[in-house]
Fold:
Amino acid sequence: MDPALALGGLVVGVVVGLTGMGGGALMTPMLVLLFGVQPLAAVSSDLVASAFMKPIGGLVHLRSGTVDLGLVKLLMLGSVPSAFAGVLILRALGDSEAVQGLVETALGVALLVAAASLGVKAYLAMSARSRRHRAGLLPEAQPGGRLSVRLRPVPTVLVGVVGGLIVGITSVGSGSLIIIALLAIYPRLNANQLVGTDLVQAVPLVASAALGHLLFGDFQIDVTFSLLLGAVPGVYIGARCSAVAPGGFVRRALSLVLVASGLKLLGVGTVTLGWLLLAGCLVAPLAWAGLRRRHGLPALARLEKRSGGTAAPSEDGQPAPRG
Structure:
């Protein structure tokens, strides 16, 4: 057992359980960049570990009633076969240095797309909140915080197909990419439903990809065992906390890690990467504050306070604090 790997698995597990995101997006680059694992082996080991992690978080959300099983079934129709197909594509390409480099580049691009999708998710939620403010309305939650949605089969299955293919090749996307697509198609889903539904749909998706990597990939049992020792309790703790903990800070930190890992995998130098991250940390909060003022969100916060403390979702999708 590698204690450092187990600690890394614990951190990633907590993030996965808390937000539904960050499994492959954090675990795979951690294995490649910090522990020197080859990209193909990192993808294989991460997916097998995730096949054990996801059911734990999903079970917690199923018991809490924060899962839309209709959505899960539609996503499975597309994601399960396409995830296995992604592994077969990797198998057909072989495991030469060129393929290792290709996987590393694909992973870097997928991480940057995932980071961008988090920003898009936050902006869409902020825009929706602004529209409710201009209409003088606040969202009405059903008992237990659940909101009903009308299923859209074709786009949902297509999301599963694309997401499954990306997961099978890079191990990234079962949370970070698919959850963003769900928000775009079903904006009425609240944060807990998004996390719960995504975690449950990821169980068969990751299991399909993991089976393919066990059969045809570069799975390393020692790496996976160390990851699981930390990740299994981590994802349980994160899932238990997800219903009450604000996810804004976690998502911002996750975005930073995704960008840093993606740029590093694409070959950006350490010094250049440091300057880029510093610039981003200085500019992004100012730009976001400007967008909030443009959408009138500070005024909405005062409106909620006058309305008796009814909480509307924040731009991160989490309930706003009561006045």
Q: What stands out?
A: Confidence is low (pLDDT under 50) at residues 138-145, 299-323. Residues 10 and 230 are 4 Å apart (CA to CA). The chain has one domain: 3-306. The first helix runs from residue 3 to 19.
